[in-house]
Amino acid sequence: MWIVVALFSLLTIVLFSGKGGFLIAGYNTASKEERAKYNEKKLGYVMGSGMGVITIILAIPAIFKENTPRILYWLMPIAIIAVTVVIMILSNTICKEKIPRPIEEVKDINTGKTIKYTLIFLVILFASIGFLLTTGDIKFHLNEENIQIEASDWPDKSVNYKEIKSIKIMDNIDIGRRTNGMGSIKLNEGHFRNYQFGDYILYSYTKCKTYIVMETDSGTLVINTENKSDTEKLYEDIVERTEINK
Questions:
Q1: Which has the least CB within 10 A, 26, 62, 82, 129?
Q2: 232 with 127, same domain?
Q3: pLDDT by residue for the chain (246 residues), tens digit each?
Q4: Structural domain of residue 118, as residue ranges?
Q5: Pair (105, 145) in one structural domain
């Protein structure tokens, strides 16, 4: 997520500089006559300010992670749409010149430059998203008194053996829907909800369909490893340390 936030931050800076007209869709392909109707610097400020607000919105879950209020996940898309609408309104009001500029004052936009930077941005963006979706690990450390869970994209968690009320191994669980967490091609991490457990915490690899389900003092915790055999081994090790029968 931070990579995406960084890219949007860079885009914000370029636009807010007043020299990012070549990045503004529609404006960068318009004729000189059409561009003469707009104040390019104001347009850049408006676009940059709007992009800055969107960047802050995207950064909220990256900063607070599991402490992000769930309602914000519902409000974020609404806020982004609202910012987009405001940008469109301001772009066609305060950014318009009362009297169009003389055509000779309108600078040519280097089409090659526009295409080049747009492609670079898109390549970096999609490469970053692809990287986030296909990488990451979950590691489990069985210490003397607790299980320490280290996750790549979500806060670590520790569970004291004494807090575990019951433990069982299950196959093909319907994990339900994510309510506050991270999901990728490789991992599912965070708060989930399904018909079986209600609200619960999940740390799992998507390809492994065998899960360890623990009822703890703080709620249900579901975990697994990259494959069935390692998950079964982890289950046996936890059972041995907690002295809970299968």
A1: 26
A2: no
A3: 666 787 788 888 888 776 676 677 777 677 778 878 888 888 888 888 998 999 998 888 778 766 777 777 778 889 999 999 999 999 889 988 888 878 766 666 656 666 777 777 778 777 877 777 777 899 999 999 999 999 987 888 999 999 999 999 999 999 999 988 888 889 999 999 999 999 999 999 999 999 999 999 999 999 999 999 999 999 999 999 986 644
A4: 1-133
A5: no
Token pair 């004291």: residue: 160
Q: And the tokens for 237?
A: 């090790």
Decide which of 85, 117, 133 is a domain's last residue.
Answer: 133
- Of 93, 112, 133, which one is at a domain's C-terminal end? 133
In a domain, 178, yes or no: yes
Q: Please name the helix (run of DSSP H) or strand (run of DSSP E) that holds residue 171, with its range, or none.
A: strand 164-171
Say what the pTM is. Answer: 0.63
